[in-house]
Amino acid sequence: MSLRPYREISRRKSRQIHVGPVAVGGDAPISVQTMTNSLTTDVKGTLDQIIRAADAGADIVRVSCPDEDSTAALKAIVKGSPVPIVADIHFHYKRAIEAAEAGAACLRINPGNIGSADRVREVVKAAKDHNCSMRIGVNAGSLEKHLLEKFGEPCPEALVQSALEHAKILEDNDFFEFKISVKASDVFLAVAAYQGLAEACDYPLHLGITEAGGLIGGTVKSSIGMGNLLWGGIGDTLRVSLSADVVEEVKVGFEMLKSLDLRHRGVRIVSCPSCARQGFNVIQTVEALEKRLSHIRTPVTLSIIGCVVNGPGEARETMVGVTGGGGDMHKVYVGGNPDHNIGGTSMVDHIVDLVETRAAEIEAAKQKEA
Ligand code: SF4
């Protein structure tokens, strides 16, 4: 029996656009986005969320611009943000122009919803003048009336047609710097729509399962939907929509990409669920390590396994490993090999130290190469 290579994901070939300095599509890494939920007029509160999200790894952050006061605040937000800002616009073309003037790197706007051809032309001109890309964001919950009449209900074909109609408007205005999303809260609908759109065009795709739910339910639902697409090579940027803190959205986005070997950032912990055989409290140790190691951006693998049943095997595959032993003495592995023993209350400090050292070594080696 011959097995085909089972780890390879062949990414769909898409054209590349830019959101500020972040490339989206083509061979660019799949970027992770989130969206603030503060009032945009609260510049300090919004920047606080953006900075926390960026620290967690967000490449791009979206901010709602529902009114003129919000686009007025956007200038200071863009200035203080460490990552490019997408302005979320619904319906009002003037907000889009103001947002482009305020320095937004991208406008999330559906050109078919902003009225006359003149208005579209004005928005496209503002985007071109200010080096601003766009995202067409089709949503099953707000499909155009003519499509609902034609198809009877939101369905993949209707979402794809909506996306292509909006895209045509931009193409007719000689504007091609855009990405597209076709979101739905129903995973079957969202996945089928993205698959259809992936075949119908080569624009970069922004993945999302909209209104996915709270932290656990939303994470599972998003992982099933987006995981399916990413595994199939579809998706150039993503946002996990959770009724949870922005940092959680970013963390979940990265965990999805890490699971599929599509992108690596920070410490990936392999840990067992623990049982009566554990030599130390695995759950508490992993909880403590997740907090203490969250500042590390360099990809490092770490295994925390309660006993020898699976410990040595997992440790062989990770950069740093700990396997629980008897009498509060546990084996530490470095580079896959048994290295020394550790026990007692200093274990977490010791592991943090080892991982930080490994991360620093990797960074030093990278700098030397460069
Ligand atoms: S690795 Fe050991 S401690 Fe962990 S779950 Fe398996 S048997 Fe239990």
Helix and strand topology:
Blueprint: E1 17-19, E2 22-24, E3 31-35, H1 43-55, E4 60-64, H2 68-80, E5 85-88, H3 93-101, E6 106-108, H4 117-129, E7 133-139, H5 145-151, H6 156-172, E8 178-183, H7 187-200, E9 206-207, H8 215-231, E10 237-239, H9 246-259, E11 267-271, H10 282-292, E12 300-305, H11 311-316, E13 320-323, E14 330-334, E15 337-342, H12 347-369
Parallel strand pairs: 3-4, 3-10, 4-5, 5-6, 6-7, 7-8, 9-10, 11-12, 12-13
Antiparallel strand pairs: 1-2, 13-14, 14-15
Helix pairs in contact: 1-2, 2-3, 3-4, 5-6, 6-7, 7-8, 8-9
Describe the structure.
The chain has 370 residues and is an alpha/beta fold. 42% of the residues lie in helices and 18% in strands. The strands form three sheets. An eight-stranded parallel sheet has the order 8-7-6-5-4-3-10-9. A five-stranded mixed sheet has the order 11-12-13-14-15. Helix 1 (43-55) packs across helix 2 (68-80), helix 5 runs antiparallel to helix 6 and helix 8 (215-231) runs parallel beside helix 9. The radius of gyration is 23 Å and the shape is elongated. It binds iron/sulfur cluster. The site of iron/sulfur cluster has 11 residues, from loops. Iron/sulfur cluster binds at residues 272-275, 277-278, 305-307, 309-310.
